[in-house]
Amino acid sequence: MRQVSLNALLSYLKKHQAVIKESLVFISIFLVIAIPLTILFVKTYEQSTALEEKKIDERVDAAYESLRLRLSSDFNLENSRSYKDYGILNSITVIGGNSRLFSEFFSFPDSSGPYCDFDSLYRQCRKGLVGHFQISHSGELLTPFYPDTSTGIGKSMWDNFSFADQEQRKKTRDLIQHLLDMLDIKNGLPKRTVQTLDSTEAIDQLYDEIPDLQIPTRIELTSEEEALTYMAETAKNDTNATSDIPIFNGTNTNVNITDLKIRMTTEYIVFFRTIYIGMLPIVQGFVVDKGIYLNYMTQEEQLAYTELPYAIELVSEDKVLLTIGKHNDSYTLRTNRPLPPPYEKISFKMYASPSANTTGLTILFSGIILLIVIATCLVTIYRFTQSKVALASKRQDFVSAITHELKTPLTAIKMYAELLQNSWVANEEKKQRYYGQIASEADRLSRLIQNVLNLSKLDGNRWNVQLRKERPKAVLDDFIATYSKNIEKQGFELTVSTDTDADNVALLIDRDAVMQILMNLVDNSLKFSKNASYKMISIELRVNGGDMYLAVRDYGPGIPASEMKKVFQEFYRVENEMTRSTSGTGIGLSMVKKLCTLTNMKIEIENVNPGLRTKIHFPPLDI
Fold first, then answer.
1. Where does the pLDDT of residue 228 fall: very low under 50, low under 70, confident under 90, or very high at 90 and above?
2. Does the predicted model carry a pTM greater than 0.85?
3. 237 and 317, same domain (yes or no)
4. Which of 86, 351, 480, 623 is most exposed, with the fewest beta carbons within 10 Å of its own?
5. Domain carrying residue 266
6. CB atoms within 10 A of CB 566
7. Listed range (339-343, 419-423, 600-604) with the worst mean pLDDT
8. Do 91 and 69 share a structural domain?
């Protein structure tokens, strides 16, 4: 079985060797074009994808950097504030001495007031601000908007001014105290006597005794009058506590100030720092509502990213503090980095939807379309070339066939003519038979030449179509009267059957075309069934409803099913031209098909076992 299959394969390869070579050439051409183009388009797509990713990364970096700059700017603004602003009174130098003015923190904070957009002028008007505070060196809470009313400056404030929002101020002070206790933000030193140590030495000593104190990062120069005014408030103006106030040598001294730090609760952020006047540490700070403050600081991101395929989260200790935009499971985390100090415990997370890369997809899709177009063009060229090669081969076969077909009757005519010319035939009966043969071969030659001429007319659209009202029955009778002798002469019997309904039916038909079609169909039947055991040609004229058709049947071998669609091609013959055993040029059925199309008729062929039946359908009867 394997040997048979191998032989069949080798036979197929040998038979289609030329076709396989041509196919391989076109495939090679396609690959030579397609491979570089594919590499180019893939590289372009990859670069486009990388560019899209870079754009996303740039946008993420820009969002982080924008928020970092705003937070840093806001932090630096508050971090650079003078220590004196946290008190109730400020001592300022004027002509002739010093004057004391109320601190801006003395007024109750109003983060929703009409001037809150002018932070540069109303620095206290911070979005979400709850209030400022201080923790004295003895650990007591001091709030400039709600002074201690027991003694000193605080008592005089409440005596001289009436505060309509006193209850609200007290509640805010209590809230701040609660937050400081909760977050363990405190200050406190043991009672000590007056010392005249150098301030640097005093602070070093404090670091040794209280390790939790912060290290100063900047120094503010202050006058003795300013320092005494500030210390009087923090000491509650208590004469018993004056021993804790440092002694200043000269007119100026240094105040060491640390950077702000933060601690957070669920709802609030507490900013605080430590200042050192002489050897005394004092904690200063303020409280903001976390939600209001973070929403205000991220306004630009909310405007920029709410409607875009991005989402931002501010996260602290795995708790989401703020979300900008919406994201789902398809979004990917593009960055997770801490915010700048003192917000380093808050992480900035930014998500982005998978990049669609429409530009890259368009390029890739265009590349695929281009490759398909190239492949289609190559296939079209290949098929066109194949059809031209096949047509050239068929034309060559036609030339061979027509030469053979012309040579045969001419040879017969010449032979019979020479016999008669040289008086080599004495019998009168033979002479008449030879004359008949000459006439028959001349008719055959005439029909062959007429077929070629008719095909030329059809190919050149020069066939003169003459549609007239004719009875197909009358045309069939004329054909039988003209052609029946030729059928009988070749040893075939002709049978004709018609429906009675067809006798008087008249249609618009081309009489010459119908005659030519019948002649070619009968000639085909005579040629291909000459070796049939039952030599008969049957012609039928039938009416089936609104359909009227002519059918020509023989009892020969028929046509293989694989060849049914090819027999109407020009110059096509079922047999190989080199090994064929029947005469003919391969133009008969092609011409029949063209004549049917030209005169509004249809043709169909079918194997009827034995033999072949060819039906010619006339135009519908209702036309």
1. confident
2. no
3. no
4. 623
5. 82-290
6. 13
7. 419-423
8. no
